[in-house]
Task: inverse folding
């Protein structure tokens, strides 16, 4: 963790698929080799990922442009994921916990309206 989360509800467990767990274990092996090669030059502690968070945002923007996809922020994808969860029948409380939101009322206003609009179209 680079910095502490904003709220207590931001600290949460997430469920990962077996495929993702396998990829992370493979990545851990690659990283262990790099760490041995670098020795005392290794400056990343026990972090799983050794790049700055902005790197992902930059890569995402580049990927979207390269593939002629609409300009969308990573944060919008987060909201899209929450909306899809609600659309697929996940209850608002579960979706809010997964997202780290402490107030489920937010979903009743913002995301439930989006789901209703999707169903009507």
Result:
């Amino acid at each position: 963790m680079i910095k502490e989360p904003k709220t207590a509800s931001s600290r949460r467990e997430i469920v990962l698929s077996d495929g993702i767990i396998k990829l992370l274990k493979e990545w851990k092996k690659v990283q262990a080799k790099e760490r041995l090669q670098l020795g005392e030059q290794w400056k990343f502690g026990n972090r799983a990922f050794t790049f700055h968070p902005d790197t992902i945002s930059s890569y995402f923007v580049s990927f979207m442009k390269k593939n002629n996809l609409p300009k969308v922020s990573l944060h919008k994808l987060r909201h899209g994921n929450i909306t899809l969860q609600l659309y697929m029948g996940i209850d608002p409380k579960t979706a809010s916990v997964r997202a780290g939101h402490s107030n489920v009322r937010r979903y009743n206003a913002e995301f439930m309206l989006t789901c209703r609009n999707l169903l009507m179209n």
User: Anything to note?
Assistant: Residues 16-44 form one domain. The radius of gyration is 18 Å. The helical segments are 18-38, 53-66, 74-87, 92-99, 105-120. The longest helix spans residues 18-38.
